[in-house]
Amino acid sequence: MKDRGQNKQKNQLLDPVLTTKFSNLGFQQLTEIQKKAVPTILQKKDSLIIAPTGSGKTECSVIPIFSLVKQSKKIGKIKVLYITPLRALNRDVFRRITRYAENDGLTIQIRHGDTSQLDRRKITRDPPDVLITTPETLVILLTQKKILDALSELEWVIIDEVHELLPSERGSQLSLSLERLQLTTNTEITRVGLSATIGNEDEAAKFVVGTKRKCKIIQDTSVRKYDVDVKYVDGTISDVADSIIDYVKKLNLNSPILLFTNTRGESEFLASILKEKSDINIELHHGSLSKQVREETETLLREGIPGIVVCTSSLELGLDIGSVELVIHYGSPRQVSK
């Protein structure tokens, strides 16, 4: 089911035209995972790409895919489906890859729970070449006749943050949707999975492509080092807040700090206490907040405004949030991959 062949990939030379394209887009030197993955993607092989956050996974998939779709695009047909687990990640991916799509003359849109009715009608009336969505929204799209027609010549599916979907009902739902997609299209769909953390690579590969298809597992073997410290606070959540404030002030960092909690309730309670006890800028981010509030917080992070952002998993999955020197987790993470 799997096919590694990593050493052979590493020695393959990229197409000079594509190398020039990466360079023109600002990538003067390709990362290890980009050198390994791009030749495989150009061959339209199903693949699972595993590499740390910030190593260029997104670019190593979309740039070669867009260069191929440029030759086969057709008015009214969606050629690439990009699936992420979170709306925040949808927006972040859209912001990052729009220029790559436009560079190849492709149109791109987002369709998820925050999408306005006006934009939904626009997507139905004039389908883009590339559509970014979530697993839940994909289920809805597969019930709409006009969208099914737009997806009838779909060529590529990119699944981002695969590890987040693996052990869940959402993952099972997505697997069914992908098989439905293949049954309703006139072309063979190439699937590409992206993830920074994978426990069982073989199971993850099966999740991406199914049990009867081959999947090339491409992995970045470089190692990143982190300073990890565990602190125990014997007291209430108010005492925890005091400890966090003292720790942050002692470090005196000039960049945003992410403070993760396991639940939305914890994040709101801890944020309110921190605001009462400190003059540090405190922001809040979780899935139940309005689109405007979430986007404003994400912008502050990208701009590098100092302060603490108290958040749930809504900010943990590969978002481009600029330079962050400190990440704090309140309580024990519920999964090893967290």
TrEMBL record:
Pfam families for the chain: DEAD, Helicase_C
Q: Name one GO molecular function term.
A: ATP binding
Q: Which InterPro entries match?
A: ATP-dep_Helicase, DEAD/DEAH_box_helicase_dom, Helicase_ATP-bd, Helicase_C-like, P-loop_NTPase
Q: Which residues form a coiled coil?
A: none
The alphabetical list of record keywords is: ATP-binding, Nucleotide-binding
Q: Where would I find the Helicase C-terminal domain in this sequence?
A: 243-338
- The Helicase ATP-binding domain covers 38-216
Does the record bear ATP-binding in its keywords? yes
What name does the UniProt record give this protein?
Answer: Helicase ATP-binding domain-containing protein
Q: Which organism is it from?
A: marine sediment metagenome
